[in-house]
Amino acid sequence: MVYTLPDLDYDYGALAPHIAPEIMELHHSKHHAAYVAGANTALEQLAQARESGNFGAINKLEKDLAFHLGGHINHSVFWKNMSPDGGGEPDGDVADALTEFFGSFDGFKKHFAATANGIQGSGWAMLVWDTLGQRLNINQLFDQQGNLPAGQLPVLQLDMWEHAFYLQYKNVKGDYVNAWWNVVNWDDVAQRLAKAKAAAAGLF
Ligand code: MN
Predict the structure, then answer these.
(1) pLDDT digits (tens, 9 = 90+) for 131-153
(2) Which numeric CATH code is attached to 92-200?
(3) Per CATH, which fold does 21-80 belong to?
(4) How far is CA 64 from CA 67, 71, 122, 177, 195, in A?
(5) Which of 70, 87, 124, 126 is the 20 to 30 Å CA partner of 149?
């Protein structure tokens, strides 16, 4: 197996009351696990296609790989982006960068929340380091892999699939987004921003 399900750094109940334990357990042990299995299956089937020389299903397999690997990557970032000790406001380089690219922390927060709440269908709100522009951008990611330019490194992601909130918040997405700010792990965001900048240096 190329891809494996990572353990969480905290218990399924650790993010309550902001994210209910039953959501966390299903989300990690069922949904994320399915993306990991799907990505491995897509790689196996692509290898079989190369062996047999039959590429008749290539479009399906490439879509499967993008979707399932996207799901694996997105959730791997998402779990680290949250902590029972999270919340509050960032300081240091993250605070400076959010002010530089979005005017203020409050401006960033409103922009990010509107991006999340506005997603049509399933997707993610993404704070990314754009490796070409050398700047932070906010994007909507559709499903697990769509509508995001290449070369965008994830810094902070919010899962807006219904499986992420419906058991607790029903159709009231805004309450989920408001509660989520209480568990954002700004220390992890700071590490991701620093690593993204370093990784992007000299790419263009
Ligand atoms: Mn999810």
Answers:
(1) 999 999 999 999 999 999 999 99
(2) 3.55.40.20
(3) Helix Hairpins (1.10.287)
(4) 5, 11, 16, 29, 28
(5) 87
